[in-house]
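I would like you to sit down with the record closing this message with an eye to the fold:
=====
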Amino acid sequence: MIMFYSLQIEEAGKINGQYTNKSANHIIDEKLKDLDKYTSKKFIAIFKVNVGLRKSNPDAYTPMLISIGPYHKKNPQLGSMEKYKLMYLRRFLQRKRGLDVEHCITEIEKLKGIALKCYDDIENLDNDIVDKFSEILLLDGCFVVEFIRECSGMKPNREDKIISTNCMINLVLRDLLLLENQLPFFVLTKLQYMTKEVDEVPITKLVKETFFSILPKMAHASYLEREGDVKCIKHLLQLVHMSSHPSYYNSLWHVQDLSLKIISKDQDYQTWHANMPNVTELCEAGVRFSKVGNTYSDLEDRTTLFDIKFENGRMRMPCFEVDDVTETLLRNLIAYEQQTCDVLPKHFSDFAVFMDYLID
């Protein structure tokens, strides 16, 4: 390793094959010059999914229809949705008299610096993407805000839906909850505020109502009731995640500004995964299984994905519908948990580990 790094320093000291007079210290100082700008994790909230998670199913983390934000902007297969972004931008501008693109860009420019820091690996973004970042935030942000409004029945009178087919709607909903396909939530909040109607509900509630239909087994009432400081919400996926906790969550945890503090003696949370028997072994040992709740969405059913109980030799587990979006959503929620250091407890990761042991 030392020999390899020395070779790197030696090669860095060459210009057009000729050695320079720079010392090793000078060369390393130049390499470290902008390191803080690229390695600070203070603002990073929108990560690229790491190789370890991605390799088992790369498609689960890749947009199928629309690119939001910078990571997949260069994907030519997603270019057909650009015209839809323009349609939603036009609708956005028509909501307020006198509102134009220049004014919107001016407002977004104020957020550009901090928004760019929300993304991981920004030093490897193409220069043209960085140069046009404000335009990307505006165009993609207007799409997200207006699409969510449209799904909530807030399209202008006498106008048709811009995206009307169930197939496209479901694909857009899927893509908007990918970890790599996020916008900083404060950008969405700003855009909604710029064109907000007097009686329009907060965007947090619009988001929850829009995405509830694709969530696997979430109790409708408790999902919609959970609120937090909007200033602490990082992106759409995080909002859905913080709203999707076990039904007993409120009795075990205090939620303050979306920071979770467990009520325990040492204030430390650790998840321990002990080896457990699989279903066959449990059945042979006399354990019986029964389902809890309904398979399909039901507003009266308050059972959640995490309501798993073992009592008197019987394992009670919630049943839920599995469709094309289920695996993608669960994988991205798990990726968010695994790559975000302040998410505790990691409910979706724990659920996946439990099911892995059970199914074996």
